[in-house]
Design goal:
Blueprint: H1 8-34, H2 39-61, H3 63-72, H4 81-92, H5 103-114, E1 122-124, E2 130-131, E3 135-142, E4 151-158, H6 162-180, H7 190-198, H8 200-204, H9 206-219, E5 226-227, E6 231-234, E7 238-242, E8 247-248, H10 260-281, E9 283-285, E10 293-295, E11 301-303, E12 309-311, H11 318-329, H12 332-341, H13 353-364, E13 372-373, H14 376-387, H15 392-395, H16 404-423, E14 426-427, H17 429-436, H18 438-448, H19 452-467, H20 478-481
Parallel strand pairs: 5-11
Antiparallel strand pairs: 1-3, 2-3, 3-4, 4-7, 6-7, 8-10, 9-12, 10-11, 13-14
């Protein structure tokens, strides 16, 4: 492949063919059923072949196509076991298996962004260490000045023409998203495509990504669970950061040799960076798929790719945590008042408080005890409720209206849960929620007859005992980090 396929006609034709190919396979499957083939076997084969072609097409096209595939890879935990294996194998290859661009194309970008003398500061391996949706990564060494000591770096180089490709993809991906909704338990991806479109310009600007990554690197310096690489240099299309020796989580997540203790610690690290990020940096890491996390030799998790973030200067939104606490405490009046007052539910919505409690119980269940074990089986059961027309989990969502400012937070939480279920990790979710969610903590303090400060101190001590205390100065507030 000589470069990223940027032709609107070519990319559009490849993506537009996916829905029609699925329809053709479905029609052929129906004919096989009439001919006597078992319905379950036919349906499974149609789904398997559709996803294999989908993943192959998304991986080859890169751009927005691959970003959608990467985001969907965390959803394989929802699938029934008989379909999970082929989905898992095919979707997870998207994390690092995108075909690489030739070195000559990469070099043209380096000259345009860093100047003709770029090699005086930067030495690169011409073979990419990873190739993803918007750019590919090369390992190298960097000198900030001619007499500075070289440091090992990862250099992300943006694909030429990717902006045009992304915009072309997003017009067609809405049709693909509707097809995905027909593939069993796999969630409809239309909202995800809209979200990708909304943050397009930010993800294409590596200087903005560098600003976000610097804030995370400063805020999580010395953290016992996660490592964020230092940023050494950035332009609009080239990002130079510290190199981390580790393997992508996508290569470990289904490895039976990975111990339960390691799975639990990785799970805690994933929750930690997503929960602690808003309070420490004022930002939410908004792209939790397995390719964005590395398992390091010392057991910590390296966190990559800060192109997709959401500004949360006040930390985790208080209403989300408050609602979870109201469900746990069974406060029916308080819950319905909060749901209608925030516009989550219309006052005359035809649902009962019992139905709302039953629906939200799934989201609050991980906080009910000291720890919670996430499993594929648990997630499949909850997904089945959503598909059951007689279930409140099916009825209530039809009347829910999540405010726009919470949509990305909701998707990130769902992606995180998908990863935890793939890991089958046991995590102290209640302590995490008490430590980092002010709305949850304040509501639980009122219910328990204690103070916010007391619950905060207890949760902080519990997490420090489990994982060690982070060496982060208390003065590193989101406001201060904004200037980093």
């Amino acid at each position: 492949m000589s470069g990223l396929r940027t032709s609107t006609l070519v990319r559009g034709a490849r993506l537009a063919a996916l829905p029609s190919m699925y329809a053709g396979r479905t029609a052929l499957g129906a004919a096989k059923k009439v001919g006597g083939a078992p319905a379950e076997a036919v349906a499974s084969e149609v789904q398997r072949r559709t996803v294999e072609q989908l993943c192959r097409t998304l991986g080859e096209l890169k751009g927005g196509a691959l970003k959608l595939g990467q985001a969907l890879s965390v959803l394989e935990a929802v699938l029934p076991e008989e379909l999970a294996a082929p989905y898992r194998a095919t979707l997870n290859t998207l994390q690092h298996a995108a075909p690489a661009l030739p070195w000559s194309t990469v070099e043209r970008v380096l000259v345009a962004e860093l100047g003709e003398d770029w090699s005086a500061r930067l030495t690169l391996d011409t073979r990419p260490a990873g190739a993803a949706s918007i750019g590919q990564v090369h390992r190298g060494t960097w000198r900030a000045t001619p007499d500075a000591a070289p440091v090992a770096v990862a250099v992300k180089v943006q694909y030429p023409g990717v902006a045009k490709a992304l915009r072309s993809d997003l017009r067609q991906l809405r049709r693909v998203a509707r097809v995905l909704g027909s593939l069993g338990h796999l969630a409809d991806a239309t909202g995800l495509v809209d979200e990708l479109a909304a943050r397009l310009d930010d993800e294409l600007d590596y200087e903005k990504e560098a600003t976000s990554q610097r804030r995370f690197a400063t805020a999580f310096a010395g953290d016992p669970l996660v490592v964020v690489p230092e940023v050494h240099h950035a332009t609009g299309k080239v990002l130079v950061t510290g190199w981390l020796d580790g393997a992508p989580l996508s290569q470990h997540i289904n490895d039976p040799a990975l111990s339960q203790a390691a799975r639990d610690r990785i799970g805690a690290a994933l929750v930690h960076v997503i929960y602690a990020g808003p309070e420490r940096t004022g930002l939410l890491h908004a792209d939790p798929h397995p390719g964005n996390f590395l398992l390091l030799p010392d057991g910590r998790v390296g966190v990559l790719d800060f192109g997709a973030v959401k500004q949360l200067p006040g930390g985790i939104p208080a209403p989300l945590g408050r609602n979870a606490a109201l469900v746990l405490t069974g406060d029916e009046d308080g819950l319905m008042e909060a749901m209608t007052g925030l516009g989550f539910l219309a006052p005359d919505a035809p649902v009962t408080v019992a139905e709302v409690l039953d629906y939200l119980a799934t989201m609050s269940e991980p906080f009910a005890g000291p720890t919670f074990t996430f499993t594929r089986g648990w997630l499949r059961e909850e997904a089945a409720k959503l598909m059951n027309p007689r279930s409140s989990a099916h009825v209530v969502p039809k009347h829910l209206k999540l405010p726009p400012e919470y949509l990305m937070v909701h998707r990130v939480a769902f992606g995180m849960v998908g990863l935890l279920c793939q890991l089958e990790a046991t995590v102290p979710m209640r302590a995490m929620e008490l430590r980092w969610s002010p709305g949850f903590r304040a509501t639980m303090a009122t219910h328990l007859g204690t103070t916010d400060a007391e619950l905060h101190a207890r949760a902080t001590a519990e997490l420090a005992e489990r994982y060690g205390a982070a060496q982060v100065p208390a003065t590193r507030s989101p406001r201060a980090l904004a200037a980093v």
